[in-house]
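Q: what sequence does this backbone want?
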């Protein structure tokens, strides 16, 4: 569905017909996870599509990222969609620092 844009006094505020979706991926042991090259979460629904989080604990070497964790939002089953399709996503990632009890928000 289309989004709406509301403008007042030069400030633009977007609206959406689609409610936000929340998905939590809890990593019990990062030391076990970092032994993998790639980890995929379970699929979840958001905005009428199926998604998954893909984690590269050692970085995504195809993008020349090393020594950092890489996290991507990936559409599940995208290969079955028609050529030229587009989906616009407002994706926010929150990482919990369990030691400090605070979140790092990546937009």
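A:
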């Amino acid at each position: 569905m289309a989004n709406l844009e509301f403008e007042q006094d030069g400030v633009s505020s977007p609206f959406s017909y689609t409610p936000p979706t929340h998905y939590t991926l809890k990593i019990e042991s990062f030391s076990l996870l970092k032994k993998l090259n790639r980890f995929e979460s379970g699929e979840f629904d958001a905005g009428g599509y199926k998604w998954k989080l893909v984690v590269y604990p050692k970085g995504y070497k195809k993008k020349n990222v090393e020594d950092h964790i890489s996290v991507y939002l990936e559409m599940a089953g995208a290969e079955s969609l028609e050529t030229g399709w587009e989906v616009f996503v407002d994706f926010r990632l929150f990482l919990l620092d369990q030691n400090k009890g605070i979140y790092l928000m990546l937009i």
